[in-house]
Design goal:
alpha/beta, Rossmann fold, seven-stranded mixed sheet
Amino acid sequence: MAAPLSEAEIASELAPFGIVLPPPGLSQLSRYLELLMRWNQRINLTGIRDPRTIVRRLFAESLCIARAVDLRGWLVDVGSGAGFPGLALKLAAPDLRVTLVEARQKKCAFLKQVALECGFSGVEVVAERFEDWVGKTEEQPRIITTRAVIVDSELLQTLRRILAPQGKAVFLTTRELALEIRAEQRDWTWLTLPVAFSDGDNVILIGTISSVVD
């Protein structure tokens, strides 16, 4: 396993994205990164192995959402995997209520361990498929996030049904896929934002349900 990064090194990797975390956030990110790299040796959490790349491609890109969306109330993260972007956003918004929906038990165990060791409060880990969980909840989240999950008509119809009024669906995706989603799903109002200083072609796609369907 690669050597861990110091908090100063983590801050240096975040800086080009315009992300500045207070000391508690940096300490939590450092612990989260350490756990991710250790668990990744046993279960497949991410194909990225270099800690600096993990900070940039997973943490920083997730935290860019905090500059684009008002992170308050209840956020639901679909297909959380290793916790990006949903759990990572707790670093920027400690008071945010977060529900992480992840079908794979081992990844749920990892998410619970991160929440425990990083001292994140208001985090619920749900070991179910999102489609199954949706049928059991009566509350409406303000924000739904996802990364590396197929965004098709079925998923968007489900999000329309459960999002709170004026709620936002936030996808970390590629520029190409964002264009496809925008072209095919016209009953949403879309905003595409580049991920500043991203190594790849990732964007933040934010959807708000349109009041009038074209």
